[in-house]
Amino acid sequence: MINAFLQFKIRNKSSHHLNLGDIQEAKKVLFATFTRYGDTIIDLVVIQEFIEQYPSKEYLVLCPKQMKPYCSELIPKVKCIGINKRNYLDMIKLNSYLKKWSPDIAFNPWSFGLESSFFLTYSKKYQFYKSFKRPEIINHYAVVRRYLKLPEKIWKIEDLTLNLDCKRVLICPESTDNERSISVEQLEKIIKNAMINFENPIITIASLSSHYLRSNCNGFIFKKTDKSSRNFIKLVKDSDLVICADSAPLHIANALKRNIVAVFNSTTPKIVLNSGSRLSLYKS
Predict the structure, then answer these.
(1) Would the pTM of this model clear 0.70, i.e. be above it?
(2) Same-domain pairing of 57 and 81
(3) Do residues 142 and 14 share a domain?
C-alpha cells in the first residue's frame, strides 16, 4: 500500500539537471540514501567528501533505521534521520519536518527505490539518481562523485604490509551475491592461515546466516536493526585485521581505516574499491 502511495505522489514529478551553480548557491542539501547495504556506505563516504567541499551548508541525510549508526559514525556532525517507510507515524513526522526545513537541492545516490525519489520532491530542485546517465563501467565511488559534481580522482590503492601481531581477526565471508562470497574452501584456508600466522588469535566470523559459522570461531549474525549495526561497528573497530569478500563490510572496514585483506572472486578491485584504499588483496 505504501509503495502505491509513493508511486502516486511522484507520478508527475520531473527530475532537474542540477549544475555546479545550483550546488554552490544552495544553503540546505538533502541526501536520501535508500539502497543496498554496501552502496549506502559508498554514499556516506562520498557525501563526507561533498561536505568537506562545501562546509558552510546545512545538511540532512535520510536512511533506513538500521543504517543510521553508520551515518552517525562516518559523518557525525550531520543530522541524520532513520525511518521505516511502513511506519506511518514516522512518515507523518518526516513529512512535517521536510516541509518546514525546505531543502534547496536534493540527491539520492545509488538509490532507485520509490521512497528516495519521493523524499527528494520536498526540495526546490532535485536530480533523481535513476535519471542520471551513468557509464556502464565505472568505479562505484567515482560514479557518486560524478553524480554530485565532485572532482574526479585517479584510482590507486596502497598495499598493506600485515602486522604479525593481530590478536583479533574478523572474517566477513558472505555477500548478497553468491559469486562474490568467500567459498567454504577459501574460508577454511583463511582460518588455518590465521591460526598459523598469528599467535592464538580470537577469530570472529560475521555473516548473514549461520552457514559460515565455525565451532572454533566466535560468531556474529547480521540483523536489520539499529543495535546490530552499532554492534558490528564496534566489532570492526575492535579488530586488528578484517578479511572480507566483496561486500558491505569491506566498505565499512575501509571507511573505518582498519587493516584489511580483500577477497575478490568475481569482481575487479578497480571497480569496487575507493581510490586511496590501503589493504592487501587475497591470493589463494
Answers:
(1) yes
(2) yes
(3) yes
Query: Which of 1-5, 125-129, 221-225 is predicted with the least confidence, judged by mean pLDDT?
Result: 1-5
pLDDT value, residue 8: 62
The residue ranking higher by pLDDT, 116 or 10, is 116
pLDDT for 199: 87
212 and 116, same structural domain?
no
Residue matched to cell numbers 567528501: 49
Mean pLDDT taken over the chain: 94
Size of the chain, expressed as the number of residues it contains = 284
C-alpha to C-alpha distance for 245 and 232, rounded to whole angstroms? 16
**Cα–Cα distance measured from residue 102 to residue 177, given in angstroms and rounded to the nearest whole number:** 38
Q: Phi/psi zone of residue 149: left (φ > 0), alpha (ψ -120 to 50 degrees), beta?
A: left
List the domain range (segments joined by +) for residue 73. Answer: 2-147
Q: Which of 147, 170, 188 is the last residue of a domain?
A: 147
Element (H, E) at 105: strand 105-107
Cα–Cα distance between 82 and 115 in angstroms, integer?
13
Asked if 30 and 75 sit in the same domain, the reply is yes
CATH number at residue 110: 3.40.50.2000
Residue of 15, 110, 105 whose CA lies nearest to 57 = 105
Beta bridge partners of 245: 263
